[in-house]
Amino acid sequence: MEQLPEDWQRGIVIVAHPDDIEYGAAAAVARWTRQGKDIRYVLASSGEAGIAGLPPAESGPLREAEERASAKIVGVTEVEFLGHPDGRIVESLDLRRDLAAAIRRHRPEMVVLFNFGDGWARGYANSADHRAVGRAALDAISDAGNEWIFPELAELPIWSPRWAAVYGVMDGSHAVDVTDTIEVAVESLAAHHRYLEALSPEPVVEQARAVIDMSSGPKEGFPADHAVSFELFYFAQ
User: Which residues have C-beta within 8 Å of that of residue 19, sequence separation ≥ 6?
Assistant: First the structure.
């Protein structure tokens, strides 16, 4: 397993929901912001359908606030929500256009995506929103560099990222050492306090630590006690 390229300065993380980033990528984000990189978050939805018993009109603003607090803990201050409907996101041209526009606005060299495969592991299905957002985002990276696919975005100069790195995958090709940022990743996930309380009666910090330990443990073939793995895609410049 190779070291993920880190010879870049600006990256964006594109996901479907608040907490998606913290379920696997926050430790890597903390590493990168400590290196002085400019990392920004783009979320397709506000996660408004994500808390049982709490109506979307109340849940959406709460989850946005938790995501902003969580982002701040790992050094991210720019968080954008695109307003697609939580639980009903469709892999569509509209979604591709919105994501291509976000890529042009933020002009990243690295785009980080959540697992958009059919499953997490054998026998465990992935979320429809995760699949739709990840696949649309992978296409949007190319769209952002083409002036003709979405001519309605002409006011935004075209932009072509160099890479996309997908986390939460079963067998990654690359990894980063996050041994020094495990604790801040736990704190970042625990900032989704109301969301985690609704998932389990276990203390929020214990839930967060279990998730981070599972997602950021040692990886075969990579020399680190704690690592986040990625599948890396390359894009022509």
Answer: 47, 50, 63, 66, 67, 70, 189, 192, 195
